[in-house]
């Protein structure tokens, strides 16, 4: 006899901090190091501290501009650019999937 199917509704986290906490738990389950978890926290928090308006209403153009500005800010070296890109893109890709 077949059981009932129940759909589980996912609700979006109220703040980026909640989403980041869930993301870090997800990454921890994958076995990442404590240093990598700290790096994710640092880069995501730094992005939102620098661009607090991004977390407000959905504004794709403003978000994109802020992301490009953050990635290329301060005349950074290519390795720093790549690190920022990996940490932010991994977090935001996870957010869109979840």
UniProtKB/TrEMBL annotation:
Highest taxon, organism lineage: Bacteria
Core-binding (CB) domain residues: 14-96
Keywords: DNA-binding
Keyword DNA-binding: yes
InterPro entries: CB (IPR044068), DNA_brk_join_enz (IPR011010), Integrase_recombinase_N (IPR010998)
Protein name: Core-binding (CB) domain-containing protein
Protein source organism: Paenibacillus puldeungensis
